[in-house]
């Protein structure tokens, strides 16, 4: 069998050039990163972005941890009492009434409440006398007493004894009038002759 300088199989040496023949590979360029390299290129920036986005929220949560821990460790601790700014009371001005109301509830109508003879007495010369008791009410409290139009006495806020003389053994028949605050009340009366009058 004839042999030449060129090898007929892979791995033989070219007799003319002295170069070693190597196996042929694909003409496409190989992936410089490999499959794991692409994963690192995509995931690492994504994780960094997520960490940056959550950083502010994480810091807030971390800052709240001591307060939450204190609250959980002492559940019976009283809640702090809220404080409010003090308010200054405004002065209140009260204007007094020009004149106080008058509501005594008393009846001011003039009336003769009591009127009767107290005692009689006989005198020489066929004469006698009588003491009358009069108590008015109402009016202005100031009273004037008249017998048959003749003034006899005055009183203030009280009754009055009135003395009458009769010069004969005849009964006394007259009219009592009481004046107060422009009002007049009258009462007719008759007093019989006492037995001592002879």
Word description of this protein:
There is one protein chain. By secondary structure, the chain is an alpha+beta fold. Among the domains are: 38-75, no CATH class; 111-191, Sandwich (Immunoglobulin-like). 20% of the residues lie in helices and 31% in strands. The chain is built from one helix and seven strands. The chain has one helix at residues 34-73, and strands at residues 111-123, 127-137, 142-147, 150-156, 160-166, 172-180, 183-191. The strands form two sheets. The chain has a four-stranded antiparallel sheet, with no helix packed on it. A three-stranded antiparallel sheet has the order 1-2-5, with no helix packed on it. The longest helix has 40 residues, at 34-73. It is rod-shaped and about 155 Å long. The N and C termini lie far apart (214 Å). The relative contact order is 0.10.
Features of this protein?
198 residues; alpha+beta; Immunoglobulin-like; three-stranded antiparallel β-sheet; disordered N terminus
């Amino acid at each position: 069998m004839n042999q030449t300088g060129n090898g007929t199989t892979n791995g033989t040496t070219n007799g003319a050039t002295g170069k070693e023949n190597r196996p042929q590979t694909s003409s496409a360029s190989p992936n410089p990163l490999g499959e794991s390299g692409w994963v690192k290129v995509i995931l690492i920036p994504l994780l960094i972005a997520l960490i940056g986005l959550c950083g502010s929220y994480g810091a807030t949560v971390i800052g709240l941890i001591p307060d939450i821990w204190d609250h959980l460790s002492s559940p019976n601790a009283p809640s702090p009492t809220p404080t409010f700014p003090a308010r200054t009371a405004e002065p209140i001005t009260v204007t007094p009434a020009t004149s106080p109301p008058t509501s005594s509830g008393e009846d001011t109508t003039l009336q003769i409440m009591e009127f009767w003879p107290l005692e009689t007495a006989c005198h020489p010369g066929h004469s006698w006398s009588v003491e009358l008791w009069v108590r008015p009410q109402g009016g202005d409290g100031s009273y004037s007493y008249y017998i048959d139009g003749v003034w006899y006495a005055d009183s203030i806020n009280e009754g009055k004894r009135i003395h009458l003389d009769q010069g004969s053994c005849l009964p006394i028949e007259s009219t009592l009038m009481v004046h107060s605050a422009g009002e007049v009340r009258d009462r007719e009366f008759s007093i019989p002759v006492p037995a001592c009058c002879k």
